[in-house]
Amino acid sequence: MTDVIRVPNAKIALSTASVYPERTPDAFELAARLGYDGVEVMVGADPVSQDIDVLERLVDHYQLPVLAVHAPCLLVTQRVWGRDPWAKLVRARKAAERLGAETVVVHPPFRWQRDYARDFEIGLARMRDETDVIFAVENMFPLRARGTEVVPYSPGWDPVDQDYPQVTLDLSHTAVSGSDALEMAEKLGDRLAHLHLADGVGTTNKDEHLVPGRGNQPCARMLERLASTGYGGLIVLEVNTRKAAGRTERIDDLAEGLAFARLHFAASSTT
């Protein structure tokens, strides 16, 4: 008998957030240099991340596609593309359509966004009917203080419990929430459309986004599991390199993350 390694067709992208404090053009440069299949644009404070014309020029210059757009859902991006959360999603969808990206990553609403939260599932369903772009809702995590758990999201932080057709699974967020990432993937089944590859050790309230293999999350087993099931969604390295001593160390981290993904995203079959 011979073990044959089969590598599924899913692409591996670099999140532009992974190069911070460098900027979006630097993410394109490094992704192209290191051999990523494309980028996920985190729409944020960097004006380039908000400008579709400039992003199109970067795609042409580096011959590297935008595979996903992360809508500006963070607390620090509340004013990016306006304050209306639905308007943000519409702009993210239009950006994805223009750039040829297949996925928009979106967070569940904050609890204080009551109207948005109330209509979230219905609104997403309506938007899905208008486009081929996938809206993949990301798992988040509760916050803890003095033994009390606070959930800042509505209807909740865990998309497994909701009826979203497509979901993003973030392995740094599973560390913070103390979730079993493999069990979540099993329960999600075909709804798992997007993976944020990162790691963490589960420090309370700290979203670490470590390079995969540097925490306690089952990053390797997750990739192997997805490969064995013929996963066809996106794998996106979304790590924190802010503490890198310099650009060389940042590049090393991003190269290590890509090598980890390529190594483990393969399925073995016996013939």
UniProtKB/TrEMBL annotation:
Residues 28-262 form the Xylose isomerase-like TIM barrel domain. This is Xylose isomerase-like TIM barrel domain-containing protein. It comes from Sphaerisporangium rufum. It comes from the Bacteria.
